Amino acid sequence: MQNNTLLEAGNYSGNSNLFKEDTGQTLDQKYRKLLDIISSLGSAAVAFSGGVDSSFLCHAASAALGDNAIAVTIVSPMLPQSEITAAKEIAAKIGLKHILVEEMEIDEEVAANPKERCYFCKKIEFGGILDAAKQHGINAVLDGSNIDDLGDYRPGLKALEELCVVSPLRKAGLNKAEIRTLSKRFDLPTWDKPAFACLASRIPYGERIDREKLERIDKAEDRLRSAGFRQFRVRSHGDIARIEVSPEERPRFFNEQFLDDLSASFKSFGFLYVAFELEGYRMGSLNRILAKE
């Protein structure tokens, strides 16, 4: 162990009843197992997007490895600027060395947007993270997938396996709710952050991805964010923007002035038509076509 300060940073040599009052011994054991897994690697680079899972993993890596852990963020058209800014702030809060790797070109296999797009994208992104890790004398790369990720179509997990990327949260048996609980206990600002996925996931399979589409999606989602919405997606179907918000946030759209203002904003970003998904936000909604097939 490089670091003995676990209660703030997660001191895993500390009190065995650390989580007993609120979450029971099971969560305590999972957290200890997570730190054991990471500690056994000696050094590690965390693939860091600024989301709930990777932020918590950065915290755990810092607790287990101290200065032998780093965070690496891929800066690409797939990641909104707001997420990059958030990642910088979170890494600074945790006290983890943070490396930014720019990959501004969209690879042809990714741009074609096949059903396996996530596989090709992860292969490229994690290849860049592995290179950055090796430049810093680190061989192990960690990703933040958890056991809930096994329940949806995730071709990117195959790429991680092929590249020998370690998934400590899955190995420790942690799900999203448990990660949020632990994140809150360790005062991470991401503990209640809404779920997020890369901007390419807003475009239906088979529809070509380019920077212009990604940029207008980013602007449209930033417009919803600035209006105070928490869980949302702007799905791009050609020139049509299809808005999804969490079911409990739908009543806010029953306002004519708001609808007019939002429509004008989206059209100024390049969309010709603006539609609203009646059932609200559903994770992985564009994967329904795969189930149908």
Describe this structure in words.
A four-stranded parallel sheet has the order 3-2-1-4, with helices on both faces. It has a three-stranded mixed sheet with strand order 5-6-7, covered by helices on one side. The chain starts with 5 loop residues before the first helix and ends with a helix. The relative contact order is 0.12. The protein folds into two domains: about 180 residues, HUPs (Rossmann fold); about 90 residues, GMP Synthetase, Chain A, domain 3, CATH 3.30.300. It contains 13 helices and seven strands. Helix 4 crosses helix 10. The radius of gyration is 20 Å and the shape is globular. It is about 45% helix and about 10% strand. With about 290 residues, the protein is of the alpha/beta class.
Quick summary:
It is built from 13 helices and 7 strands.
List the helices and strands and how they pair.
Layout: H1 6-9, H2 20-23, H3 25-39, E1 44-47, H4 52-65, E2 69-75, H5 81-94, E3 97-102, H6 108-111, H7 117-135, E4 141-142, H8 156-162, H9 168-171, H10 176-185, H11 211-226, E5 232-237, E6 240-245, H12 256-268, E7 273-276, H13 288-292
Parallel strand pairs: 1-2, 1-4, 2-3, 6-7
Antiparallel strand pairs: 5-6
